[in-house]
Write a structure and sequence with these properties.
The complex is a heterodimer. By secondary structure, chain A is mainly α. Helix content of chain A is 74%, strand content 0%. Chain B is an all-alpha fold. Chain B has two domains: 72 residues, no CATH class; 153 residues, no CATH class. The chains are: A mainly alpha, B mainly alpha. Chain B: Its main location: membrane.
């Protein structure tokens, strides 16, 4: 567990340092995510690192299974905008719902149609 | 005596850390009673309950966040953790690369374009439109984009959370209604439209959906910061 969380934090740190030099163009943790995937792929066959790999995989499973709670503190921040919700809450909600439903529909169908056209479902 | 205890506890980080954990565990237990009911979203339930507690007790957000920040901090390593299933299922990701990239570009343009369109339609001021435009991306990116466009990052943060919860609630009923069974496509769509909150939902439905949702979230964070300039 401790090795796993350390590996994740080390890659976040590398990501943050990279983000600093990219002027915050891409968030540090997102760079860390890509770097962790690349590093694990490159060192996947190295025997001495195998226990560290396994711990990192196990730790991420625990983290990803409980991902939802991590958004609660930021979400509670909505209490700072109660006046805005009172004034234009319905319009904001309408924009969010309409745009989300349209985006979900368009994205999922582009994915499926392109996959179908490129023969991605040939083995189904 | 009890009043003194309350003053002591209410200002300590421990009380709000424990509150967040206990409310979350109760919310997931309630959501687990009826797994098919997407409206019982544990993130939404937890936010509503904690917000109500703070309003009734007269606690301001900064005092709450002193405790909750320990949970908030884990968002960083959790984002890195999204890269680990990427490594475990690399061949599955590679075989879906072309559909992913096409869905990314079209989806990202749709997310920003539809938001800007409806915001103009409802007659919002330009600074509010700029605050709403990046709402499908993860909070850190959305707030940076918003302030770069002279929006209000605090408003952006609130709308980002709302968008995440909305996507997490509607995705399963919508995809089932459209009879879409490909969990890589379903996950990718919810990660693109509803960032990490959508990804949390995707992981609770299917591991492959969670994997593609995490990838979509990462890609869309990068692309949105570029394409907002097309619309604004």
């Amino acid at each position: 567990m401790l090795i796993g969380i350390t590996v994740l934090l080390v890659f976040q740190l590398i990501g943050e340092v990279t983000a600093y030099f990219l002027n915050g163009f891409v968030p540090g943790p997102v760079i860390g995510m890509a770097m962790a995937a690349v590093a694990l792929t490159l060192t996947g066959g190295v025997k001495i690192l195998r226990p560290a790999h396994q711990q990192t995989i196990d730790t991420s499973k625990v983290v990803l299974a409980n991902l939802g709670i991590l958004f609660v503190p930021a979400g509670v921040g909505i209490i700072q905008h109660l006046d805005l919700i009172r004034d234009s809450g319905l319009e904001l909600l309408a924009i969010v719902v309409l745009s989300t439903v349209i985006t979900l529909t368009v994205t999922v169908w582009v994915f499926i149609l392109v996959k179908r056209l490129s023969g991605g479902y040939a083995n189904d | 005596m009890t009043e003194g205890l309350w003053v002591y506890l209410a200002t300590s980080p421990l009380l709000w850390l424990v509150t967040t954990l206990v409310v979350w565990l109760a919310a997931t237990a309630i959501a687990g009673l009826s797994p098919g009911n997407a409206l019982l979203n544990p993130i939404m339930l937890s936010i509503a309950v904690i917000a109500a507690i703070l309003c009734i007790a007269g606690i301001d957000y900064d005092a709450y966040f002193k405790g909750a920040q320990f949970i908030h901090f884990l968002l960083g390593p959790a984002t890195v953790a999204l890269g680990i299933p990427l490594y475990e299922k690399l061949s599955l990701v590679k075989s879906n690369l072309v559909p992913m990239l096409c869905a990314l570009v079209v989806g990202s343009l749709t997310a920003v374009g539809s938001t800007v369109f409806f915001a103009h339609l409802f007659g919002f001021a330009p600074d509010v439109v700029a605050s709403l435009a990046p709402k499908s991306t993860t909070a850190a990116v959305a707030m940076a984009v918003s302030s770069g466009l002279n929006g209000d990052p605090a408003l952006t943060a609130a709308v980002v959370v709302l968008t995440g919860i909305c996507g997490a609630i509607v995705v399963t009923p919508m995809m089932n209604a459209m009879r879409i069974k490909d969990f890589s496509a379903r996950g990718f769509a919810v990660g693109l439209a509803s960032h990490g909150i959508g990804t949390a939902r995707a992981y609770s439905v299917d591991p492959v959906a969670g994997l593609f949702s995490g990838i979509a979230m990462g890609f869309n964070a990068v692309l949105t910061s570029l394409i907002v300039h097309v619309f604004l």
